[in-house]
Inverse folding.
């Protein structure tokens, strides 16, 4: 059973930082690209960051480039998202999953709320 458990969200002022973490199980974590997705109210879920299985290749959406950093620990089967210089537009529920998504087993996500 694929399990994805996100944590680390919260309420933060604009310009602040948060570090999200994701614990994964139920698949061969070290062989899969992993990513962070987010979904704001009334909007579709979007990919904001991706990291290769080797950890040497990363991708960021233009909206977060230069502010967010994705990382992973294959031994611990965890993926992280360091979020700096947060903006109100970053407010959303954040999810981790494989890239591309091959399982419908989304976690419950973690809420990030950035106040102006």
């Amino acid at each position: 059973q694929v399990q994805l458990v996100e944590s680390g969200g919260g309420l933060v002022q604009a310009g602040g930082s948060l570090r999200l973490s994701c614990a994964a199980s139920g698949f061969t974590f070290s062989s899969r690209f992993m990513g962070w997705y987010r979904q704001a109210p009334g909007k579709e879920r979007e990919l904001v960051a991706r990291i290769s299985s080797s950890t040497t290749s990363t991708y960021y959406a233009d909206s977060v480039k230069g502010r967010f950093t994705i990382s992973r620990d294959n031994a611990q089967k965890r993926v992280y998202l360091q979020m700096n210089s947060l903006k109100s537009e970053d407010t959303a529920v954040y999810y981790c999953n494989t890239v591309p998504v091959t399982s419908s087993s989304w976690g419950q996500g973690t809420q990030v709320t950035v106040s102006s």
